[in-house]
Design a protein that fits this description.
Length: about 350
Amino acid sequence: MLFRTLTALGGGWTSGGRSLQSLDNAATDVIFSVGARVHSPPDPHQNWFPQDGSGVSVTRREVPPLVTVRPTGAGPSAFGPSPYRNQELLLGTRVYTVPRLTVRTGDGKPAGRTQGDRPGVRLDALPAGNTADRPTVTARCAAGGEVYLWAPHFAGTARLADAPAGAPTGRFRSDPVSKIAAMQRLGTVPASGRLRVELSPKQPSTVPDGAVGCLDTARLNTAVERLTATGATRVSVSGGTIRAELPEGATGTAVVAAPRTAGWRCATGDGPAVPAGKYHGLIAIPLDGSSTRLTCTFHPPGLRLGTVVGGMSLLAVALLGVLTAVRRRRESGRATEDGLYKRA
């Protein structure tokens, strides 16, 4: 569930999905209640991307509490192909413009369409040393929005053309078999509203339909205020347990900002703990308006069965040891009696 949820929101992964790439995105930080984020330069011990002189930085933002209250529940999953719309599904409001794109090759020609299960346009690798004939993506958005590029099957770098010094470079790691790239922030829509993204593909890549999303930060801040106003008044986390105090008379669905993986059990008030439900992939608990306390605890799946089996195995080993010691003692006693009989 963690893998599927983060991928649907624009996340990336390596090693066939066993290792997740960081999703550096303002909307998902709000969804998962991430109030501070560390931004790091390229790993100097890897050769995926050259060093760009950037250092470690920290950004902070206002986010809702870890537990929020939504007016209604949802099915196990209603995610679609667009990660921008999927993020909005969890926020409960529209915050993105997903504009129509024009993608051209380095010589200014329209890029060809891909075939199969990766719809979009196809780009060839940029020849080594060629920095002039970059493919481009152009679109229009409202000025001042944050520009994001989602291209899970693109390998290389992306930058806003004519971006000011210090603007971020999007670094995309993918391959046809074991990696898909995470969504990347590229900067701010210029005053003209016309944005142009320059791409530097390192290998044959695909830019999907709906690759660009322009985030309206004012709408996102409004969503934060709404979720905070109806969310938990206090949250504490200890080990594998989350405790929250809810507003009086809260009804609907309490949503914990964490993927609903197997092993989560939740209780409201003094009620019994039951397996947690799902709200578009997150932990969800129905509320009836009478309880103001929520407790969710995680137990690794199979822990109880494993403990029982392990205890029985340990008991079997102990019994075997006792039986072996008794048998040796009996054999030793018989040998002693046989020796005394022969001497007599």
